[in-house]
Fold:
Amino acid sequence: MTIEQARARDAADPLRHLRDRFVLPEGVIYLDGNSLGALPRATIDAGRDMIEHQWGERLIRSWTEGWMASPARIGGKIARWIGAAPEEVIAADSVSVNLFKFIVAALRHDPARRVVLSEAGNFPTDLHIAEGAVACVPGASLRVVERDALGDALDGDVALLLLSHVHYKTAERFDMGAWTRRAHYAGALVCWDLSHSVGAIPVDLAAAGADCAVGCGYKFLNGGPGAPAFLYVAHRHQAAWGNPLSGWMGHAEPFAFADAYAPGAGMERWRSGTPSMLAMGALEAALDAMADVDPAALEAKSAALFDMFAEAGDALGLECIVPRKADARGSHIAFRHPQAEAVMRQLIAQGVIGDFRTPDVLRFGLTPAYTGFEDIARATQMLGALLAPADCTAGPASV
Ligand SMILES: Cc1ncc(COP(=O)(O)O)c(C=O)c1O
Ligand SMILES: Nc1c(O)cccc1C(=O)C[C@H](N)C(=O)O
Structure:
């Protein structure tokens, strides 16, 4: 596709106006929103208000003027992105910390089952945290198997199946409904890590019958570096499950300053310590900036961006490691290339920001809210120029 054709597609894109809601630096084609989302313009003013007014002027009064309620309020704003009811979601801590909470909670919930099952090659923190969490629970162990062996490994010992909805490297998407049903049939609970799906493709935890989920605030939700993550617990489990990181902010009455812990109602118990309010404010501003956007429209745009990139990749002879079927993948494209690291370094030096993932993967995030067709046309042209073998037959540029 020529640059002119790509521009025409951008002009016809019903989501094109969303791009203006983000700060996108001149001279940069940003294809890494699946790692760190771009800065929403609204976050700048919200950050100023948070610092100058809420912190600077209102000082400690802000805790009762909105800060204490913000994890649940923000959770309620995330709910629409994941097919949850507002009171099933809360913003808190990091994905890593929240995974720990759920793994220990699930193991405690059913003492007859001692195994946490996950996929080999899952995002490292999921496996590392699971390794640490099972070590805290007597008799528990972690079972890690290849994707095609998950079904057989889902036996009567499994307490929790821990899966990333979209794989961070290959973008493969699990069929959430089918795998949740399989886990339930085996008597296990499921925890979905939504880090690479939330904010880019529709997620429907309720329709899938999911038990619990965690997700990231700084990728497609654009909440800023180190943004708070979130937790989801289905209504039906909320009363019975407990947070092993039982900090005072998750207490039923934090300001009763009691010695003994009593869990807060609903999702409140999944809080642990004091939230970072500057980070909460940035995440909330980002969610508000996208509150009118339909996740299905984002998915359709993501698919169109993917197809354009994949076609260009085919023409360059690149090996795409992401499924071609739109409903079997997330919102990035990735190629295997023997010189992936060097190629990505050069691309970044030229202003095309994707990333390299070991050992040989070139990865490009497609953030439907702000990535344009012209971005893809230019990025793939630059990629093609880098990959083209040096033309030894050509003479000097001028004679
Ligand atoms: C699937 C997945 N889970 C978790 C994380 C990150 O966890 P944390 O926010 O705790 O660093 C990432 C990316 O960093 C991820 O891709
Ligand atoms: N969280 C990150 C960070 O603090 C530094 C660099 C990258 C990240 C990431 O988010 C990595 C990302 N989850 C990935 O899919 O590779």
Notes: The chain has two domains: 3-30+294-386, 46-289.
